[in-house]
Design brief:
Length: 253
Amino acid sequence: MVFRLDPDSIEFPDPTEGDEDGLFAVGGDLSPERLLLAYSLGIFPWFSFKDKEEPWWYCPMLRFVIFPDEIHISHSMRNLMNKELYRVTFNKDFKGVIEGCSESRIEHKGAWLGPDMIEAYTRLHEMGFATSVEVWKGEELVGGLYGVTVGAAFCGESMFSRVPDASKLALIHLAQKMEASGASMIDCQFETPHLKSMGGRQITYFEYLRLLRKPLWLFSNLVESFRMLREGGSYTHKDGHNYNETAPDKVLF
């Protein structure tokens, strides 16, 4: 079943009642509030911007994830890393990464990373919720990835490479940084041979939610509490604990 979203509300219907491929709702918008609520429920937008006039929302009941401590680094990748040909950074060029991801697929059928999506995720980045990983050769951006941070999870959106294995290098560095921070998982959304070769595996949606709701920061109002902490304030959770350290930089990026 596919539901039509109420344009006057950011709430979502029950995604477990959706189609087998994960599609369960259409409509709404790409506002920061709706996107953050969606990701906190394991929901993400995915639609061909060339022939769809409104967002399509997906929530597969089987999720493909990489646990940071299970990332597979092949012998050839270890050799590449040891050569130190490339430099990896975080959040140094979000614009370059998201545009690189878009350009690499813009001519493909079903291309989804169009102007509206770029604008929406750039807004999330400016708010501190979307993160990019950049791979550089000298001063040239040669690959990277970006995604949304929710709690202790990183929800990957797209990656690109202009040289062999650049996106793999970005993913490995992301996993290593997440493992060091005690983060829970990288959400890859759908299975691909590339991601499976790097240690990805399937879990159920309900296990996914359990991990998603085991964040390092437990806030009842996701948007406002993160914004408050970003601005240097504090937040008292319903568990009685007062959180007054900066987030989410302390946790992941």
